[in-house]
Amino acid sequence: MRTRPLKVALLGCGNVGSEVARIMTTHADDLAARIGAPLELAGVAVRRPSRVREGVDPALITTDATALVKRGDIDVVVEVIGGIEPARTLIATAFEHGASVVSANKALIAQDGPALHAAAGRQGRDLYYEAAVAGAIPLLRPLRESLAGDHVNRVVGIVNGTTNFILDKMDTTGAGYQEALDEATALGYAEADPTADVEGFDAAAKAAILAGIAFHTRVRLDDVYREGMTEVTAADFASAREMACTIKLLAICERAADGGSVTARVHPAMIPRSHPLASVREAYNAVFVESEAAGQLMFYGPGAGGAPTASAVLGDLVAVCRNRLGEATGPGESAYSMLPVSPMGDVVTRYHISLDVADKPGVLAQVATVFAEHGVSIDTVRQQSRQDEGDRACQASLVVVTHRASDAALTGTVEALRTLDTVRGVASMMRVEGE
Ligand code: NAP
After folding, report:
1. Is the CB of 14 under 6 A from ligand 1?
2. Atom of ligand 1 nearest to the CA of 63
3. Strands 76-79 and 100-103
4. Number of other CB atoms surrounding residue 124 within 10 Å
5. Ligand 1, atom 31: nearest CA belongs to which residue?
6. Is the confidence at residue 283, as pLDDT, over 70?
7. What average pLDDT score do residues 260-277 get?
8. Which member of 9, 331, 372, 381 has the greatest number of CB atoms within 10 A?
């Protein structure tokens, strides 16, 4: 074993960074044995230097992250600050000064992954970010390395623990969205401003990263279709239950049937209770990968939390350090396929549509005609009469489940349905996946 240590600069010492520092200290001997050289924590950059950080030598704390990455003797920079700046500039500077980088920053990688990979490549250094998608779950390395000889066609996952917690509560307790969000906030699963989670931005960043790696192409954040889950209601869950389904916020990355393009999308969807993703409870994450030779694979575990995320960061740290000792680099960006990303309108799936209609003869035939005119074939229709209070007209709710159709055809159908006199409103429209 080499006695001269590999020097690590830690940028950020919050939820994740503090756990990285702790494990580096408590498992120092094991890590040294696995790497072939000891690790030395050479500096820890933070914003608030006076904050007590248990287990971290105060002499290592600095607010000057730039000076730390410019030192020139740092072997690996671990970036766990988050956000775009200053993380992006610090990572670029780290490469310029000869360090490899491990990051947990999904927002930055989804936005600037190609440029950062190029910067790493120019210096012959590594950029690893296993923790950026699905926290502790080994997912990017299996996709990048274990499945490098296979042909991945589809990646479907629950990649945001906060939204899964909320939807799981709505499903199991009958709670509405706000009530379930309040519980998630009280328990620390949702941030004070939950927008990034509940509007699907966090999952969309992960979908962009997953699609790029799975299909060896470039998928930008803007290429990912995104719908949040704030509009999901208790009534949607009741409808889902009648179809033996539940509702999950899914990130879905698919290769087109002809192999010539890909799609990436994030939205709530009904999935059969028999599907493995339906049994993912609380704040857990799970990702289902379908590939040509391996078939169906499922990756499951904690998608967030300080220690679980630090596990993924440390796995990367060990890999990057081994590469440094071997004067090698691991796999960089693989985007040779250069597949176009198709718009959401081209996605083909099934739909559950709930309509408020007048309860009179001929309505069903009218509605069915609109579906047929748009080339959307109906699988099942369920009609329920009701007399709304204060409304003398008789109303009915009509629940239509379609066979597979393109999103464009479905959008056209719903627009046309809204113009019918007999359709009072489209109560909900949700995609049905996993069959
Ligand atoms: P956090 O608790 O907010 O910690 C951020 C750390 O960065 C803090 O130590 C903060 O310093 C420091 N910092 C902020 N701005 C800085 C600056 N300009 N210069 C130097 N230090 C700065 O965040 P986190 O939860 O650990 O998340 C870190 C990263 O991991 C993010 O990219 C996040 O997306 C990713 N991630 C987190 C989880 C999770 O469960 N938390 C899961 C997967 C991925 P102070 O301590 O002084 O405030």
Report:
1. yes
2. 20
3. parallel
4. 12
5. 82
6. yes
7. 97
8. 9
